[in-house]
Amino acid sequence: MKLFDLIFGNRPKEPIELLRSDFKMLNGYSPKFTNFSGGLYEAELIRSSINANAAHVSKLKVETIGAARPALQAKLKHGPNQWQTWSQFMRRLSTILDVHNTAFITPVFDSFGEPSGVYTPLPDKCEIVSTDTGQLWLRYSFSGGQKAAVELEFCGIMLQHQYKSDFMGESNKALYPTIDLIDIQNQGIKEGVKSAASYRFMAKMTNFAKAEDLKKERQRFTEENFSKEAKGGGILLFPNTYNDIRQVDVKPWVVDAEQMRIIKENVYEYFGTNEDILQNKAIGDTWAAYYEGKIETFAIQFSEVMTKMLFTLREQSAGNKVMATANRLQYMSNADKLAVSAQMADRGLMTRNEIREIWNLAPLPDPIGNQLPVRGEYYNVGEEESDNETES
Question: Is residue 193 included in any domain, yes or no?
């Protein structure tokens, strides 16, 4: 049994090749996604930026709300499918989205044809095709030669940098010049190290008139002085056949610190991150800004896409939905956490367990954990007058 069969094994096989590829977008093109096999994810700085985003996305808490499809909701509480945890699923989904700007979420169907989980495939190619009745399907093609088709209404597509395509995101072509600069810089550093570890000399020679003689003498001198077998003790002895001997000082050019900072900022701005996030130093307002600009937008889109693919319009109207949330207060400094905890507890705005969650502490059992602590001098407006009237 292969993973492909576990995911798509319960889907109809016949329509895969019979589906027509004549579905057109508003701009006249057929919607297709092609997996770019270039080196975007191989660049160290870019991979670090993508991984930092994925690491924080993986901490989102996925919850299903409502009473519809209780069997599916029960399974999703434990994980997206039988192979992954929610943390692993969200990390992979975020990585695919940042690398390709298009990420697919497909349901995993049980033997009865009902969704029993979700999975995020990475096809080499994906097309939106239609049947004779106008029903739209996603047709996946994978590197191993497998093909599968799933109804579009059951699938989810997460996008970023969407422009020309009505269904797919744009490529990362805008980042290619920066990738080239990073590659050139790395090559320059590598060649600079090589140059610093080698000697180069220039000299004039007498009594050698033929090119063959010069070639033989250069080879002999190199082997006797610079080869691994040479035992010169670090001293070069020149015969009187050489004159005007000078060492060639090679100074390789590399990008200076300011230009390298600009290159890094280009990458940070493109992926919506910063150096504090990559080095795990972001707290307080820095983290809040990053969360609102990057993580929260991902969470909102994910929640809407998952809700649309798992619940019908009637079920959504009844309050059924999928939500991805994060406790932002956990990323405050300890001083800020203490201030928030004290103020919220004093006013009865947070339960003991909600406060303990801020500090990553285990919840207390009921009823103590869900009680609202409040300071004694606080009272509701109007309560003091009622008490005075009762006493009189």
Answer: no
- Which residue in 53, 77, 78 sits closest to 66, CA to CA? 77
Do 16 and 83 lie in one domain? The reply is yes
Q: Is the peptide bond before 123 cis (omega within 30 degrees of 0)?
A: no
Contact criterion met (CB below 8 Å) for 166 and 26: yes
User: What residues contact 369, with CB distance under 8 A and at least 6 apart?
Assistant: 351, 352, 353, 356, 363
Total domain count, the chain: 3
Query: Rounded CA gap, 337 and 331, in Å?
Result: 9
Strands (E), the chain: 32-34, 61-65, 102-109, 115-119, 125-130, 136-141, 147-151, 156-159, 201-205, 242-247, 321-325
Residues 340 and 389 in one domain: yes
Show which of 213, 247, 281 is a domain's final residue.
Answer: 247
- Tell me the pLDDT band of 96, cut-offs 50, 70 and 90: very high
Helix then strand count (H, E) for the chain reads 15, 11
For residue 243, the SS3 value is: strand
Among 152, 171, 190, the domain-final residue is 171
Q: How far apart, in whole angstroms, are the C-alpha atoms of residue 11 and residue 19?
A: 14
For residue 16, give the nearest of 182, 134, 131, 167 by alpha carbon: 131
Integer Rg of the chain from CA: 32
Q: Alpha-carbon distance 125 to 146, whole Å?
A: 11
Residues 235 and 157 in one domain: no
Residue 27: which domain range? Answer: 3-171
Q: Do 15 and 54 have their domain in common?
A: yes
**How many Cα atoms within 13 Å fall on the side-chain side of residue 287?**
17
> 311: buried, middle or exposed (CB in 10 Å: 19+, 13-18, 0-12)?
buried
- Do residues 268 and 49 touch, judged by C-beta distance below 8 A? yes
Strands (E), 171-272: 201-205, 242-247
Q: Is the pLDDT of residue 224 over 90?
A: no
Q: State pLDDT tens for residues 154-201.
A: 999 999 998 888 888 888 888 888 888 887 777 766 666 665 555 566
